Amino acid sequence: MFKKTINLCVILFLFSYAKSQNTNNICADCGDFDLLKITFDENVNAITSKADPFKTVFVNKTCEEKEAKQLFEDDDTCGFKYNIFKKKTEKPYLSVEGNFKFDVLHLLTNAKNELAAYNASAEFKGDEKKFQLLVNIITEKFKTNPVCKTLFLDEALVYQWNTASYFCQLTRSKNKQKQETKSNGKNKIDQYYYITLSVYQNNRLDPKIKEIIRRNENFVIYKEKDFVK
Predict the structure, then answer these.
(1) How far is it, in rounded angstroms, from Cα 175 to Cα 159?
(2) How far apart are the first and last CA of the chain?
(3) Rounded to two decimals, what is the model's pTM?
(4) With CB atoms counted within 10 Å of each terminal CB, which end of the chain scores lower, N or C?
(5) CB neighbours of 220 closer than 8 A, spacing ≥ 6?
(6) Residue 91: HSE in the Cβ half-sphere, 13 Å Cα cutoff
(7) What is the model's pLDDT at position 107?
(8) Tens of pLDDT along 29-63?
(9) Model confidence over 124-157: pLDDT tens digits?
(10) Rounded to an integer, what is the distance from CA 175 to the centroid of its chain?
C-alpha cells in the first residue's frame, strides 16, 4: 500500500511538472506555446529555430533598429528582436493557457542574447467576461493586483502588474474593430478587440534595453503622463 502511494505521488508530480513546462520550440507544428510559461531562461535561438523568425538588431548609441543580416563588426550591439507572425493558413499556436490565442510574438534579447522581454498581440473576439478571465489569469500568475488606467491617446485600457522580478502590461482597444471575412463563400463581419500582452524581466532592463523600449513601439511601457487624468 505504501509503495502504491509513493508511485501515485510520483505520477502526480510528473504530471504536474509536465503541465508547467512549455513546448521546446515555437512553430505551428510544435504544439501550443503558453506565453505565461516563459521563464526567461530560454535559449531564444533554439526555441525559434523552427519558426523562421524575422530577426532585427539594435545598434550603436541610439539603438537604431535594422535587419540582423546588416550587422557590422564595428556595430555596438544593444540587443536583438525576433519577430514571429502566424500565417493565415496556420492554426494558432501562441496562447495563454490554451484558451487565449495570439497571432504575433516579438522576443527582445540583450546583447548577450538573453531574453529581456516579449510582446504578443491578437484580435480578441471574446466578450468583457472572457477578457476579465484573462486579467484574472495574469493576476494569479504574478501574485499581485493590477493597476488599470485609460490611455490618453486612444482611450485604450491598460492593465499593469509590477513585481520585484517582472513587469507585465496588458492593453485592450476601447472599442471592437470590424473586419469583413469570407466563410463558405459568404461574407461576414467579425468584431474583435485588439489586445497586446508584454512581459519584462526587471533585472535584464539595462540602459541599452531601456533605450530600445523607449524607442520601439512593440515594447513601449506606458507611464503616468500617458494616461487620462
Answers:
(1) 16
(2) 64
(3) 0.88
(4) N
(5) 213, 214
(6) 6
(7) 99
(8) 999 999 999 999 999 999 999 999 999 999 999 99
(9) 999 999 999 999 999 999 999 999 999 999 999 9
(10) 22
Helix (H, G, I), strand (E, B) or coil at 179: strand
Q: Is 83 exposed, middle or buried (0-12, 13-18, 19+ CB in 10 A)?
A: middle
- Give the residue carrying C-alpha cell 463581419: 189
Cα atoms found within 13 Å of the Cα of residue 5, Cβ hemisphere only: 2
β-strand pairing of 104-110 with 77-85? antiparallel
CA distance readout (Å), 154 to 6, 34, 125, 172, 227? 57, 29, 20, 10, 10
CA–CA separation, 101 and 37 (whole Å): 14
Read off the DSSP letter of residue 196: E
Cell of 65: 533598429
Of 178, 17, 35, nearest to 9 (Cα)? 17
- The full length of the chain comes to 229
pLDDT in tens, 163-181: 999 999 999 999 998 887 7
All 3 cell numbers of residue 1? Answer: 500500500
The torsion defined by the Cα of 36, 41, 45 and 48, in degrees rounded to 10, comes to -20
